[in-house]
Amino acid sequence: MSSLRKKALIRLLLCAVFLIASIVFSFLLLNGTFDGGSEPASDSSSVSDSVDSTASDAASDENGASAEGDGTTEGTDSTSESVAEPTPEPTPEATPASFDGLSEQPTTVYAEGEQPNYTVTPDSNMNLRAGPGTDFDKVAQIPAGTAVTALGTNADETWVVVQYEGQYGWLAKEYLNAA
Predict the structure, then answer these.
(1) N or C: which end of the chain has fewer CB within 10 A?
(2) What are the Cα distances from residue 151, in Å, to 77, 125, 129, 142?
(3) Counting Cβ atoms within 10 Å, is residue 94 exposed (0-12), middle (13-18) or buried (19+)?
(4) 42 in the Ramachandran plot: left (φ > 0), alpha (ψ -120 to 50) or beta?
């Protein structure tokens, strides 16, 4: 084989190696491996193994094997390219609030720091009830002018859940003043 032909074959193989490396890099980039997250060691070793195996294929091709008829370069990379996707970190979910002693749980629960404050009307006491309605049992009585914090509400936001002296209960929102 002439030296000019050998140089052309070496250049062709180097271009093929760089093309395959670019494809692998693009695949990893699209899968989010290079987006700033930590990369598992097994993923990086499989990528380097595929590049090393491509380089070793190129070296064996330089020794007289034909790259066009062999087809091992493409077969080796397609199996090495399958990189496991990184597992997303679970987002913490709010634990559903359970208000003991209530006949009916609120449909909306306010997050801590977003809970509105109210004051019981100054002219009368209010009945704290087990559910959002006057047909539910009385749990306690709240004196007029007492400040309460709403923990949740029913679907139409006409009743709110509060805690008073260690007991949860419902108060009619129309008899509360915003604090």
Answers:
(1) N
(2) 58, 20, 14, 16
(3) exposed
(4) alpha
| Tokens encoding 167 | 């007991």
Q: What are phi and psi of 157, to 5 degrees?
A: 60, 35
Coil, strand, or helix at residue 113? coil
Determine the CATH number of domain 108-178: 2.30.30.40
Per-residue pLDDT of the chain (179 residues; tens, 9 = 90+): 788 888 899 999 999 999 999 998 888 888 877 665 554 444 444 444 444 444 445 444 444 444 444 444 444 444 556 666 776 665 544 445 677 778 888 888 888 888 999 999 888 899 999 999 999 999 999 999 999 999 999 999 999 999 999 899 999 999 999 88
3-state helix, strand, coil in the chain (%, to 5): 35, 20, 45
Angle in degrees, CA 103, 107, 112, rounded to 5 = 105
Enumerate the domain spans of the chain. Answer: 3-80, 108-178
Contacts of 123 (CB under 8 A, 6+ apart): 144
For residues 175 and 119, give the distance between their C-alpha atoms in angstroms, rounded to a whole number. Answer: 9
In terms of Cα–Cα distance, which of 58, 77, 70 is closest to 9? 58
